[in-house]
């Protein structure tokens, strides 16, 4: 296992380089850019309608930027220099990689802060949502999936499946709106706050008051994410256990008179949990990076999802690539942790041969 861990750690820089290279190339072909965005603002145009930055050399009669018509050339050149577009594409990429090796993620074009500062401010919020949501999803879905496997085809299985399918079919943001209407002063009860992760004056609260206030604010956003995530993991758990329960070693154990609970939790559980553990990193990254975006917007939580969305809308490339770099790094580390956990759950798995 030691050699495998070393090999995976050595592959992380190469993987990050490939991810950055692919996304950097895609961004160059994407419509708009920071220069086009600023030119549109300068001319009072809709910033969502900015055009392409032409990748080739412009003709004499062709504008380099579609929004540069009627704009002084000095302003365009100043914007290019400000955003680093006065350098060739390959030089910009190599400079970015060199800075990232030193963990210098650059500075936001518009927020007057370094990308690292922005991530430090926003990441704890997304991690809070992600960790609590993932914990609750696993605590609910795994026991429920096991129970459904035991009661396959019975009334409990049918009713719970019906509820799960309804929950998975309704978009998460609709649950958020419903919870706000019911419990956040929308029309009925004022039991939970409408926005934010802490109350005003939180810094002056006692330790216990801070903890209670934090959980008071995070309850509704967490419930929304959990409702959307329980369905798939429950069915995955059920199918995994159903597959194991039909295997020969389970039939043999039953023939020897071993109690059903011992078969289920001593033999089946370890094998069935393999695929569930393997899916933990992807679930956590999904919740952190994309799953909580609408929740962060609805509940006014300044997390990483909202930061990435704002960066894309304003073509804030340093924030886009900095967020991508951090999440790619977190994803690779979580995947390695998942493999280690995999081998702990089932010592028969030998990663040394991989």
Task: Give a brief description.
Helices cover 70% and strands 0% of the residues. By secondary structure, the chain is an all-alpha fold.
Comma- or semicolon-separated keywords:
single chain; 354 residues; mainly alpha; MetI-like fold; 2 domains; 14 helices
Description of the structure:
- This protein has 354 residues and is mainly α.
- It has 2 domains: 74 residues, no CATH class; 239 residues, MetI-like (MetI-like fold), CATH 1.10.3720.10.
- It contains 14 helices and no strands.
Please state roughly what percent of the residues sit in beta strands, choosing from under 5%, 5-15%, 15-25%, 25-35%, 35-45% or over 45%.
Answer: under 5%
Number of strands: 0
How helix-rich are the residues, as a percent range? Answer: 55-70%
Mean pLDDT: 78
How far from one another are the termini? 10 Å
Main pleated sheet: none
- Domain count: the total is 2
> Could you tell me the radius of gyration in angstroms?
25 Å
Number of helices: 14
The CATH topology of the largest domain, please? MetI-like fold
User: Can you name the CATH architecture of the largest domain?
Assistant: Orthogonal Bundle
State the shape: globular
- Strand-pairing-aware structural class: mainly alpha
Q: What is the level 1 CATH name of the largest domain?
A: Mainly Alpha
**Uncertain runs with pLDDT below 50, 5 residues or more?**
48-62
Order of helices and strands: HHHHHHHHHHHHHH
Give the name of the CATH superfamily of the largest domain. Answer: MetI-like
